[in-house]
Amino acid sequence: MGNSAADLGDLPRTRLAAPQLTEILRRHRLYREGRTGGQRANLKLHDLSNQDLSGQDLTEAEMSGAKLFSTRLVGTQLGGANLYAADLRLAVLERAVLARADLRGACLRGAVLNEAVLTDADLRDGTLLTKNAGGGFDVMAFDSVLPTEMSCATVRAADLSRAKMSNAFVMQTDLSDAVMRGTKFGNANLSGSDLSGCDLRGADFTQANLTGVRLHGAVMTGAVLRTANLARANIIGAVFDAADMIGVDLSQAVRPRNLAEAYVDLPITLAQHQAWVDTGGRDGTRADFSELDLSGLDLTGAMLSAAVLHCVSLVGARLDGGQLAMTDLAFADLRRARLARADLRGANMNRATFCGADLSGAQLGAMPLQGAVSRTWRSNLVRARFDECKMAGADLRGAQMQNASLAGADLRDADLRETDLTGADLAGARIGGAQLDGALLTGVDMGKARR
């Protein structure tokens, strides 16, 4: 792998006393506010290991070569900060803002960056440097390269849009649900990483090492994957529309199988599932179509309630009037599918993709449960994608739709009462006549919706 910021133990680093650090932070705050006595924080080559800097404003701070081993930086403002060759191993940077930060050559091995903002950040490799007598940096060797490392880190639901990560080491890293639109990964090593549910539209993976990566539910529309290595990569449920796949060999990737490859007889399987439903599980067999390719099939009115369709591909399939209550459709690909008037109450549609599908009049809300006490089972549409869907008159009452994408969807006259839409994207959605009484709309910009 070569050198990393963590290997530069010979660089002299200054450990500040608590009053000194407090004063530097105070002066930086004044600097940010444009007040008298302000001074930009200079923490270059300082040892800040195990400190708690959570919530501090270190925007544009000078922190190149700093040691931040196991430092808490929860919610810290680090936008535009210079963290060149910084040692951030095991640092906790949850919800930290690192937009436009210079992280070239930094070591983020084992760091926690859940929900952090790294838009336009620079995580490319740097050049090995050493401090000279004048306090500046000298190049240690002309050809010495200091790669950025984010291996074994946890970066769930972070925003790395347009970040520069060429040549970076991002192995065995949890990037699930991260937004990485237009991110540059050229020649990067992402082997063994989890990219499930990621938004990778327009990302550049030219010559990247993607061996063994998990891409369940990832959207890679318009991504560039020229000569990328996807050996043993699990691409079931991934969306590759308009992706540049020149020179990509998918023969060793894990892909969805069709019915023939899986030795599944569809009519017999559906009949056995019907018997299983009718007898409450005493007869028949529960249908399991997980990770199969059922694209384009006509399943109009099919009985699939409580079936297992995890990571199934149903692109363009016909399921009008289908019975899918309590069905597991997590990570399923239902782009352009026809589901008008389908019953999806209580179904698990976590991170499923319905873009362009017809769900007019469909039931996607909570499922009443029989018993002595009146209860309901809420449908799970968390982080599901309904961009440009037809959902006029759909019943979504009581559904869990946190962080769902409904951009451009037709929700006219839809029932969204008591629905949890926290963090959902309703940009361009038509909501005229929609019922929103009791809906949770925290973080939703309703101004972008259309009446």
Kindly list the characteristics that best describe this protein.
4% strand, 451 residues, little secondary structure, 2 helices, single chain, 6% helix
Please give a structural write-up.
- This protein is low in regular secondary structure and 451 residues long.
- The chain has a domain at 256-451: E3 ubiquitin-protein ligase SopA (Pectate Lyase C-like, 3 Solenoid).
- The chain has two helices and eight strands.
- It has a two-stranded parallel ribbon with strand order 1-2.
- A hairpin with a 5-residue loop joins strand 4 and strand 5 (137-139).
- The N and C termini lie far apart (54 Å).
- Residues 138-143 have low confidence and may be disordered.
Short note summarizing the structure:
By secondary structure, the chain is mostly loops. It has a domain at 256-451: Pectate Lyase C-like (3 Solenoid).
